[in-house]
Amino acid sequence: MHAFHYEQGTLCCEAVPLAVIAQAVGTPFYLYSYTAIRQQYLTLDQALQPIPHLICFAMKACSNQAILKVFIREGAGLDILTGGELYRALAAGADPHKLVYAGVGKSRAEITEALRSDVLLLNVESRQELEAIDAIAASLGKRARVALRVNPAVDPNTHPYIATGLKQSKFGIEIAQVRELAPMQANLPRIEIIGLHCHIGSQITQLSPLVEAAAKVAGLAQELQDAGLDIRYLDLGGGLGIPYQEEQLPALSDYAEAMRQVVAPLGYTLILEPGRALVGNAGALVTRVLYTKQNATRQFVVVDAAMNDLIRPSLYGSYHAILPVEEAQAGAEPMVVDVVGPVCESGDFLARDRPLPPAYPGDLLAVMSAGAYGFSMASNYNSRPLAPEVLVRGDEYFIIRERQTYADLIRGEKVPAFLEGA
Length: 422
Ligand code: LLP
Description:
Elements: E1 4-7, E2 10-13, E3 16-17, H1 18-25, E4 29-33, H2 34-48, E5 53-58, H3 65-73, E6 77-80, H4 83-91, E7 99-101, H5 108-117, E8 121-124, H6 127-140, E9 144-151, E10 173-174, H7 175-181, E11 191-197, H8 208-226, E12 233-235, H9 252-263, E13 269-272, H10 276-279, E14 283-294, E15 299-303, H11 312-316, E16 322-324, E17 335-340, E18 349-356, E19 364-368, E20 389-393, E21 396-401, H12 406-410
Parallel strand pairs: 4-20, 5-6, 5-13, 6-7, 7-8, 8-9, 9-10, 9-11, 11-12, 12-13, 15-17
Antiparallel strand pairs: 1-2, 2-3, 4-14, 14-15, 14-19, 16-19, 17-18, 20-21
Helix pairs in contact: 2-9, 5-6, 8-9
Bound molecules: ligand LLP.
């Protein structure tokens, strides 16, 4: 489903004009389509129906309580990474038995919380972590269900910052080391290794690396099973990309089919941890033009959203399409502009060298494909309050996070007594 479309020249999310929301909540704001998110989940779930499976939405992509609820209500699990994400997941009513917990550096406190909450799987990334989990589980009088995170050394052909399954990556355990580690279970009485996990990267645009990694991990699982381990889960991570421009990407159903084919003959429960593919194109960041200006070489459109709201263009050089909320007049000549924010860095841009219809102060622009890793990576840099988030369903919209206030910015800060007074 296309969540965003023009209706009589004005951009709408489902049946709500973006301009109406802008009028009510101010700018910038994040906007998500309930129907589009739910539809993506159902498409994937449907395609996996033939085999036992669990879709754990990677909540790092978009962790608002309301968004988590969309998934939880459909029966999804969540992929979590920190104590903070565990807290958010439980607060949203997630079933702990549908939580998978990854992360290369889980603290003792985080492991303790995870075991107390009885999450489905701790995805373990090192020998020392495995030993720590065993000790903590013993102190709690619990057993820990564990999947070993395998680094399958497969190049996902994506931005280097988000490639996680390369030989040199910090993530996971090399295949040879997994073979050595698995028998340790015998000496770690609180550990039950019941799965293998891998996640090779994000914004992956072809199925072949995902299939190659899945096949390697599946082969290893069989080996471990033959050696006496009770493998029940294969967690093949997330990573499927989305089109940010017009590019052709594998469909969710083809991805599901490819993963299913690897796992089906083995009888394991397939876990997938998609983030971006479920929410990325269901969201946008809406911003207002403040000024335009021109110097000897460039035209600038200065908007009220900035790198603190959406860091992907600055951090990864990512492309996000930008649409005028009021459709351009027919025949309006596009201008090549840099769309920049108010933050005090030259790295603060949302688009560079972008042909856009002429923009004027007060115009609204929608920065598209911002549903994943948009708000969740936002910061208060330059003491900019975090933008509100809005969820649309049909012809209704709901504020699912209020705009931060200036008072929110200094909450928790303390001035020592010696600095008080004149
Ligand atoms: N599972 C694990 C263990 C992960 O580390 C990630 C993402 C996912 C699942 C979900 O991946 P997805 O399906 O969304 O590709 N900030 C970056 C993306 C970082 C991804 C980190 N890990 C960006 O804005 O492109």
